[in-house]
Each structure stands twice: as structure tokens, then as C-alpha cells.
Predict the 3D structure of the following.
Amino acid sequence: MKKLNVLTTGGTIDKIYYDDKSDYQIGEPEIGRILRAMNVAFEWEIRALLRKDSLHLNDNDRVLIRQAILASDDTHYLITHGTDTMVETAAALGDIGERVIVMTGALNPARFIDSDAVFNIGCAVGAVQCLPPGIWIAMNGRIWDPTKVRKNREANRFEAIH
């Protein structure tokens, strides 16, 4: 891997809680802070494409993500994305040639002490360096083929489709 391209789209991983509004809003991408804190030993670049909850992503947003990937000759991508529609975006990316794309997110905001964000990003970083070309999802300590996984909202985790 020459360089890791990180594309951010928003989602819970980047949410910030505002006491005065009593709600969450999507802030700056947290992955840059996390990669710096972990002192990673590879070159990386972040492009913030969107700041949306994944439930609000639409077909035009998915086209934007795909175009951002296809516009570059780079081969390794990590996409942070909301968990609710991660599988749908993976399907919309379609054939992306000889690129390795790993999507990840978090079930709790990265700024929360009990967030799964750092763990999921770590899994995704390892995966993007080892997997063959294609689109993958790194969640809950596993690497998933997006055509064989779904988010179980009741259990708040990803699981295999049987």
C-alpha cells in the first residue's frame, strides 16, 4: 500500500453531542485525530466528502463517493460511513477495478469513551492492507462481504445473512 485514502461521509462515528440542543450533529472527521494518536506508520490522506447521517444519504451521494474513488489512480481506500446504510452504499459502488475499499463506522460516536470507533478503524486499516481488490465492511471485529451481511438494529451489530 503506497498511501491510504480515507473518505469520510459522516455517520455516528463523527457525531458530537450538543447539550444546549440535546441532539447530535455531525462534526469534523474523527479519523484524522485517531490515526495521529495511534502514530500509524503509513502515508494517509483524508477527504471529507459528506457530513450526513447515513439514513439521509441518497443516490447522488453514492455517485459522489464512487466518482471520488474512480477519479484517482490510488488503490487503497478506507471509507467512514454511517452503519444504517453502509451495505447499500457498498452495493452502489459496484465494480471499482483493482482497488481495495474497506468501509467502517461506529455504533457510538468516536468521542465517547466506550466507542467502538478506534477498534473498527484499526480492523479496517489492517484489512485494507491485506485483502484482495473489492469492497469490504469492517465492523464488530470481523471483515464482511457486503453482499452477505446486514445490520441487526435490535442487537446493534452486524451479522451474516443466512
About this structure: The mean pLDDT is 94.
